[in-house]
Each structure stands twice: as C-alpha cells, then as structure tokens.
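Troubleshooting log. The previous run stalled partway through. Resubmitting the same two chains, unchanged.
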Amino acid sequence: MSSGPFALWRWGRLFKDFPGFLEGFRITLLVSILALLLALILGIIFGLFSTSNKKILRAIARVYVEFFQNTPLVVQVFFVYNALPYVGITLDVFSIGMLCVGIYHGAYVSEVVRAGISSIARGQMEAAKSQGFSYLQAMRWIILPQTITIVLPPLVNQAVNLIKNTSVMALVAGGDLMYRADSWASNGTLSYGPAYIITGAMYFILCFPLVSWARRHELRIKNRDTQTVRPAALSAKGGQ
Amino acid sequence: MKFAKKMVCVALILAAVAGTVFAGGKQESGGSGDVDKIKGHGVLRVGVKSDVPGFGLQNPATGLYEGLEIELSKLIAQEIFGDSSKVAFTPVTAKTRGPLLDNGDIDLVIATFTVTEERKLTYNFSTTYYTDAVGMLVKKAAGISGLKDLGGKTIGVAQSATSRVAIKEAGDKIGVSFGFSEFATYPEIKAALDSGRVDVFSVDKSILAGYLDNETVILPEAFSPQEYGIASKKSNTELASYIDGLISKWLSDGTIAGLVSQFNL
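Second attempt completed without errors. Output:
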C-alpha cells in the first residue's frame, strides 16, 4: 500500500520522537491533576457559598458559576494567552492550562457540591443546631461526610471532562499530549489517523479507570440498604 | 454487566480500526482515466490558500479568490473542460491540505505547497512553478535585525510547514539556538507575535506579506528556497503527469512568468 492511512507508519522515526510524546503525556497528566485539585478547592468553597444563608456569598458564587458555565473554555484560554499580555500579565502556557481548566471546572464542581449539600442539609442542619453544633461543625461532622458519598460519581464525571478539556492547551502551543500529536502528524512522523488514534488511546487510558471505578461505586451505593434519596440534579452531566 | 463492558471495549476498538482503514476514503484506483474522472465530476476541485496575497487570497469585498495559484487552477480547468470557470475552490491550511487530498475531497492542491523529498513519498508533485524562501516577520520595536539576534527567542511556526526545519538549520550553522511554538493557523501565529508570546513569525515570505502591518517588518534574510509544486494524490499518476506537462509548457511559453509579474511576486 503506497498511500492510504497506514502509509506513514514509520517505526524508526516513531520511536525517535517517542520521548517527546511521553513528555506531552506527562504535561497532560500534571495539568490534569493540578487543575483537578484547583477545581475541587474552588468547587467546595463556592459550593458552600451558594448554600450559605448570607446573601452576599450566594451572589458571589452565582456570578462565578454563571460566568464560567456560559462562556467557552477556548475563549477563556485565548483571552488569557493573547489578551492579558497587553496589560502586563504573561503567564506561561502550563499555568494557563492549569488555571483556566481548573477555574472553569470549579464552577461545575461547585454546582455538584451545592446539589449534594442541599440534598442532605434539609432537616439535618436544624437537628444538628438543636444539639448545639455550630454551622461549620455541622458541615464538617454531619453534612459533608454524607455529601461526599453522594457526589462522588458526578465528581468523577467532572474529572473526566476536565482531563479531556486539557487538550485546549494544544491551541496555544501548550506542549501537551494533543499538541505533540498534532506535531507528530504534521511533521510526517505518522499519518494523521494513527497519530490521533494513539492520542485518543492515551486519553482513554487516563479516563477509563475513573469512569469504571465511578460506575462500580454507584452500584455499591444503589445496593446498599440506605435511606439516602439521590436527587435527580446529581445525575445531570455538565462541563462537556 | 462484565460481558457488556467487554463488548463495549471490543466495539470501540473495532470502530477505531474501521475508522483507520476507511479513513483513506474512496480508494480510487489510480493510473487510468484520472482526468476523465474529473470530467465526470463536471468541475475541477482545487485546494487553495485563502489568506496569501498574490497566491491564493479570498477578496473580503467580493468573496472571490485571487492570485497566481487561482489563475493556474483556472488555466487547468480551461485545458480539461475548455471552460475556465469549471473550478471549485476549497480553502486549505498547511495542516488540512494533505488529508483533504488523501480522502479524495479535492483533486489538486495548489496552495504554496513546498516540494520536499519527504512529501514526495506521500504525494505526486509537479515541476516547480514558483520558488520562494522562508522569511521572518518581527516587531519593529523588538530591535531584531537578523537571525544572529534570535538567541533564546521563541519562533512561531505553522504546524506542517517547512519553516521550522529551515530556520533551525540556518541557526545551527551560526551557532544560535531558539525555541519553537507551533500553531494551527497563521492568524494565531500573528496574534501570538502581537501579544509577545513569540518573537518571530516565520513562514514563506509570500505568506508573511499578508500579515505585514505598521508595527511589523519582514527581515531581509531568507532561508532554504521553497519550491512550490502542484500536488495530487499518490495513486493518481496519470493526473500528475498531465498536470506536470501543463506546467512545463506554461513555464517555457512564458505564461507563468506573465502571471508572476501580473501579481508583482
């Protein structure tokens, strides 16, 4: 076969560039982990804000969530990469990937946290307060531990979307897995088909364990004889 | 449940493999009747640049394509159909032109496509119809006068373009090293130059001309001649030799020279 999709399976060159490809995988993995941590921290903070009884905190959380849920991540990334330097803020691409993806998904995580808390909090908060717990104590010892079990599956869902979304870095020469794949395919090391199939497989390796673990976890919860009612809001998928 | 999961995996893998095998698209048996096939389409489908002044530019006012490569496409349509209007233009980028040719969406690529030994393995190229060189666009304010000033700087290049290799070789010769950032499209490289993400926008000089403004300048230095040829699918050998014959004819009778001066190239 002189042409067609497998014409450029050049094994010799493939392995010459493999370290670069692994470097891309490493960057994607690192950015994913750091952005996920950031998203969790922001998600918990703003999730608590939005279930607070202080109006100002609820308003702040609302603005954050609405802004990031209703603007494309790509636009945010290009804004930070190409517009912020004009006002003297020049972040490196790695930080841009971590911050943009983390903050963007933080908005979705906070919605998951909010739904989780409000599914538990009704009644239990009053009960805790009547037992002399403060708001924060009640959150820490009663509400959040129950919330965690419930919000895990939708959180994993967010984590998977986050990992996939790190590929926006490729658009601003981010050196991540997707960027390397483009580079690989376009410099003729591989033809486009195999290059993207291998890259897809790499993302699959990152995401699939999470998804299957979440599925098992969900089954465990379902089969557990529990009084917990899982509200519909939690199975909503977001952040695509 | 386990079984279902396995089946899903198998299905996924099969889909991926099938995707690869059929990604080649309509595996046209080359060799005979390529030109007749184009006649059958009723139109010559050409991949051209839409943002390169003088070569392939879509005029924003009229929406029409203009340039040397557009005129060449019309001339070829004239030869095949006896009617220069029987040509359909598809705008391509450095990254998309190869795949579009592979999957049979277009018959020819006439889009500042530099002939390289590497690319000859994948596509048929005609005789060179124009020779350009890799150039560098920098900000006037940056105080860069040539390659020697680029130590430690970042150069923005297009994915799939030959400029990266050309500039790196030139830099190695004088012992200057720099980094590269690759972008999918030229406007993105220009944006990165404007915002200071890259210090140099490097691509063929003809393409750079389209991005020159009051704040930027094209450096006099140029590297490794870029020979533009018309590309066709590797299997369409008959088409390739037909096109090659036309280009050779137009080179010797002055047709191409006329076009080059018409567009001030």
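Takeaways: The interface with chain B takes residues 2-8, 78, 81-83, 85-86, 90, 171-173, 179, 182-183, 186-188, 192-194, 197, 200, 212 of chain A (CB under 8 Å). Residues 235-240 of chain A have pLDDT under 50 and may be disordered.
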